[in-house]
Design a protein that fits this description.
70% helix, two-stranded antiparallel ribbon, 299 residues, mainly alpha
């Protein structure tokens, strides 16, 4: 048995290394391509240009971020002038959509999770079962009914509309995750607060929220990555606003449609859109595992 453990460890490590390589190589290729000139991309593969330091440029990022005009020669040899896709506005639009869409469900779910964990009211178990059941309901089936209601309420094409949509779609997971964490807080701590005269609101704001930071941060990562990378919900509920309210994912979709051959611009835009989610994950990763493990072990 002891001899089999090192062998199984080697196999697991080898599989993990293989998966890392499978994920890293294409990402490296996209990164290299984002710094290559348009003509070089169509002539050689990205792996052939790694040793050629002179073939790299920052023009792709300047064109994507600032909408800078650039020139190139098409297949017939004709010089063409084109304007780059300015993604700075789409970047700000994504921030405008994502930040409230993360904060609002966290606040609502934290109150709801506290109520389900520590308050006794009629129908508590039934309501919680319904919320958990909503986790398996695909959001796609709700898009058309919600869109019809938005058209009646004139919320389609507004930030408020997409904030409410992301809040509704994200609340079941948020409530379930926060409930698992809040319910593990020792009852003695709660009783001590009540003996000192603290109300439920005071206990929640001064005791529960500070203790629930790992679970809050864990859900914040999930929600931020989901909303930032979402294209379907943004495409449906912001379609009436036109180009002025396009988020990063929708702008990238339009770039694919108009610049299907300009891989140097598409890859640069892809890495620009990755910067903020990666930063958020790295800043909150120490809470990530702890938040995911919330409620999995009972003392």
């Amino acid at each position: 048995m002891d001899a089999q453990k090192p062998k199984s460890g080697i196999i697991v490590n080898a599989v993990l290394i293989l998966l890392v390589i499978i994920w890293t190589v294409p990402t490296l290729g996209i990164l290299v391509t984002s710094f290559r000139a348009r003509d070089n991309v169509s002539k050689t593969g990205w792996w052939q240009s790694i040793s050629d330091k002179s073939g790299y440029t920052l023009e792709n990022y300047k064109q994507v971020l600032g909408g800078r005009t650039f020139t190139y020669k098409d297949s017939s040899g004709k010089t063409v002038r084109a304007k780059g896709d300015d993604m700075s506005g789409a970047f700000l639009n994504s921030l405008t959509v994502t930040i409230p869409a993360v904060v609002i469900p966290i606040l609502i779910a934290a109150f709801a999770a506290y109520g389900f964990a520590w308050l006794d009211f009629p129908g508590r178990k039934t309501l919680f079962v319904i919320i958990v059941a909503l986790l398996v309901v695909p959001l796609q089936i709700a898009l058309i009914p919600v869109l019809r209601d938005y058209q009646v309420l004139k919320l389609n094409g507004t930030y408020l509309g997409i904030w409410l949509a992301h809040t509704g779609f994200g609340l079941p997971l948020a409530i379930y995750l926060l409930f698992n964490y809040i319910s593990t807080i020792p009852r003695s701590i709660m009783e001590s607060a009540f003996i000192d005269g603290a109300s439920h609101f005071t206990t929640f704001t001064r005791l529960i929220l500070p203790l629930s930071v790992p679970a809050l941060a864990s859900f914040a990562i999930f929600q931020f990555l989901w909303v930032w990378n979402d294209m379907l919900v943004a495409l449906v509920f912001l379609s009436g606003a036109g180009a002025k309210m396009q988020v990063v994912t929708v702008r990238m979709l339009n770039m694919i449609g108009s610049r299907g051959q300009d891989w140097h611009l598409l890859t640069a835009g892809a890495f620009v859109s990755m910067i903020l989610p990666l930063t958020v994950f790295l800043l909150l990763q120490r809470y990530f595992v702890k938040g995911l493990m919330a409620g999995s072990v009972k003392e």
